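User: Structure tokens for both sequences below?

Assistant:
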Amino acid sequence: MDNKTPPGDRIAKVIARAGRASRREAERMIAEGRVAVNGTVIDSPALNVTDKDRVTVDDVALDGPEEARLWLYHKPTGLVTTTKDEQGRPTIYDDLPDDLPRVMSVGRLDLNSEGLLLLTNDGGLKRRLELPSTGWLRRYRVRINGRPTDPMLQPLRDGLTVDGQTFQPMIVSLDRQQGANAWLTVGLREGKNREIRRAMADLGLSVNRLIRISYGPFQLGQMKPGEVQEVRRKILRDQLGLGLDAEPDPEAKPKPRLQPRARKAADPTGARPVPARSGGGKPSANADGPSRHAGKPGAKPAGKPAGKFAGKFAGKSGPKPGTRTDAKAGPSKGKPARSGPSRPGNGPKSPRPRRD
């Protein structure tokens, strides 16, 4: 007897991976005769299929598996977390944007609950996030009517059984009393149907508002009711390990690498470099660095002082190169010779006799 497992994956899993329905919904579709494999309608989910098989759902060919994606959705109150409601109540799918692909909710929030709800297009990811073994903490802000005390909430921390169903220990903190109501923060790691409301009712407390503020690492933050935000692929890779390392993130914008500002080599003389000009001016022979007038047309000769007080103080520290003096005049006693022309016919004046 051949006990080898047939190749491929279960038909319900393949349908879920294609984003057409969850596994449970796919099994219901199969039971209703809406699924066909290679042209033959099937009535049992106990069937494995491969890529060579042609699967149709409602006479529409099943697409290949889509890339796993995840969205954050701020569910408002008054919406049912289901695709169709038997009582005709509005569902979350009536509120989602039109350009959103077909998605499935990760867990549920009841009609009167609000806050963070995860949506995904991948059935395998949905199942993975819903498993209690994932161990992700789900935190809620809960408003109850009454004046609870910390000892009154202790049974929630210890774990209790309601109507034969055991609830795991919760993380509960009493935040504040606001009039006739009190606000609590409750954390739990498994989300059974109406778990918080039923547990509070068992203690004689009535919940009049319940807001989910986080689901594992994903936070509600400042999202407005009805708002949808897609989780970036890098975060999915880091938080869920979906093996996306080989594929670049199209949403990630490369950050410009900051380069240090270029610094010019310091001149040991301390002079500031002057950029070369197209006029091809010759550099000055000044030892302190190039002249700032070098290469300018009509520039004054290097070494000649400019301005009308150029030679006024030349004699105090010895004659400077280029200081104008009269060759026939005797040695000066610290006063510079006149720079203007002498009077006609007078010639240079003799120095005045020194008075004792």
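Moving on to the next sequence.
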Amino acid sequence: MLALAWAFFGARTLSGGGTPAGPSARDSHAPTVRRGGAIFVLEGSPLRGRIAVAPVELKTISRSRVVTGTVEADPARTVRILAPVTGRVGELNVELGDNVKKGQPLATIDSGDLAQAVADAEKARATVKLTKSAMERAVGLNKAGGLALRELEQAQNDYRQATTELKRAEARLEVIGDSGQVSGQRKIVLTAPIDGTITALETAPGDFIDNATESMMTVSNLAKVWVTASVQEKDLSFVQKDERVEVSLLAYPGEVYSGRVQIISQLLEADTRRNKVRISFENPYAIFKLNMFATVRFFAPATQQVLVPSSALFMVNDTTSVFVETAPWTFQRKPVVTESDYEGATIVRGLEAGQRIVVRGGILLND
């Protein structure tokens, strides 16, 4: 066998380039024969007992990625409370964090604008009543021949204008009343539009409200919340709508909450190169609290991949390679491309299932 190996390769490489370097050198560098890129481990070499060879396997795996996230209120269950009129906050009936029921009083505003709106409506009602009477008289006189047609038309036009003004004034009061209960001439009591929790409070008794677009407070129904994950651009392949995810909260070590992807933002944030992904969770027992930090694990669809032990990989000059067995105890270095680690092994490209590679002791062949 040894003679055949000499004849096949035509050269022998010992640890000292052909000259024995002593017992210790012979123990650490087993005799091998090399030709081109092939390495043959000689029969009887102690190297054979230190090298393990195994076939490459194709396995079905489901990779995952873990990203950070936060608990947020569902925008569809969140209402910003705006003042429908300018005025001064007379009473504040809630505090930050309070739970409220639909229709519950939140705050009372004393408003001159409200008084003006009520006065405008009353004036419009009086004008409609007056112009209606004038029109009815004009119709009667016109039929009797005692009033010109032009004067009748003027009375009818005055009535139509008064009716239009009354509708406008009443519509204004209805809009104001949609936000609360109008009390008297000047006061409006703002009420909760939904069941929920006061999650933001930006006013206080005595505060003057002069901007109808600024929120006084926010009511959020937290019976259902979102966990919003921030996914790096390179990991978006792991995110699929309706795919399952696992969420863990720092507040509850060891607990894992299963959910499914509901919304994948179509806009990548330019500054962070991340994408917002939202998972909805029922929250009847208030386990999820706003602004809690979470870790979210996404699972890619199952695929078949070539997996090799990390011990089979060698890095030489920025190139990763393995030793492939081309014949019994004959090995060839083969470059491969590594993708990611998976359960103690590495996913690689460049190998085929069934090929036999060195999985242990390959360092002894590495030069």
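User: Anything stand out in the second?

Assistant: The two ends are 25 Å apart (CA to CA).
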